[in-house]
Design brief:
By secondary structure, the chain is mostly helical. Helix content is 74%, strand content 0%.
Length: 252
């Protein structure tokens, strides 16, 4: 791993829309790849979860759970710039519209959203929204922390065990060798966060999220021969959805 501060800030600016003061922004080594900074994925995810969780907890004290859950989901979308949702929608459009690999990759590059992408977004937002609303203010807060942290920790699965399906593209930033000990350290950090926040339920939910992301990766390999940047977003979304649903089943 390169300079830790640079790596953390690099991941923070990649996964979020946080504006950084020049003094911090100048510390980022922009030529580094995400593969050199995976250990910070669960930590940045935790920061996003804290923001969304705090909105849910605070608003639940005054508003109905369904409204508060909507505000929590909206917070995540604003903080991340809907980065992963965009990937999910593009993935759904490409994979849903054709069985041809090259045509699917071409469609996924199109910024316009189609019927498959729209349905995927409705399901993603709707499932997360309703799952969160089924939880108490404290349980919802903890669930959002676990889900945002663990779901971003699934992305290194593709970087470690698969290959990039394109010649170029945003997902190319995730190419490159991953140091094995850093990969397992990332998984350990994610597991510890889930354990501390949700005990055995948190660990089980995270495991379900990792399994769902792994299955999504296998489908991407089957259809495209590897992952893309959009595919990584789809993996994160599938994991976040399943983690929240699992915790709603445990805690509601």
């Amino acid at each position: 791993m390169s300079n830790p501060l640079s790596s953390f800030l690099f991941v923070l600016t990649f996964f979020t829309r946080f504006p950084l003061p020049h003094a911090l922004g100048s510390r980022i080594e922009h030529d580094q790849g995400l593969n050199k900074a995976i250990i910070f994925f669960p930590m940045v995810g935790l920061i996003i979860g804290i923001l969304a969780g705090t909105v849910y907890f605070a608003s639940s004290l005054l508003l109905p759970a369904l409204v508060s859950a909507g505000l929590a989901v909206a917070t995540g979308l604003i903080v991340t710039g809907a980065l992963h949702e965009d990937g999910l929608a593009d993935c759904a459009d490409g994979l849903g519209a054709t069985s041809n690999r090259e045509k699917a990759l071409e469609i996924m590059r199109d910024s316009r959203i189609g019927a498959y992408g729209a349905v995927a977004l409705i399901l993603s937002i709707g499932l997360r929204w309703t799952a969160i609303s089924a939880l108490s203010p404290l349980s919802g807060f903890l669930a959002l922390l676990i889900a945002h942290s663990a779901s971003r920790s699934t992305i290194p699965l593709a970087m470690r065990f698969s290959q990039y399906a394109r010649i170029d593209g945003l997902g190319g930033m995730a190419q490159g060798d991953i140091i094995e000990k850093e990969f397992y350290a990332t998984l350990l950090i994610s597991a510890v966060i889930a354990l501390l926040l949700g005990w055995n339920f948190g660990v089980i939910a995270s495991a379900v999220g990792f399994l769902s992301a792994w299955l999504m990766l296998k489908y991407l390999e089957y259809r495209l021969g590897g992952y893309t940047g959009d595919g990584l977003g789809a993996m994160q979304q599938v994991a976040e959805i399943t983690i929240l649903i699992t915790l709603a089943g445990f805690w509601s």
